[in-house]
Amino acid sequence: MNTVTKKKIQNEVISLLTSSGKKSLHILSEDCCSEMSRLVGYRIMDSNPKTETIIIKGVLTNNKQHDILIVKEGNLFSLIDPTVWQFYKNKKTIFLGTFKGIVEIFGFAKKFYGGMWSLSENLKRSDSKKEQKKCLSVIMKNLG
Question: Count of domains in the chain?
Answer without folding.
Answer: 1
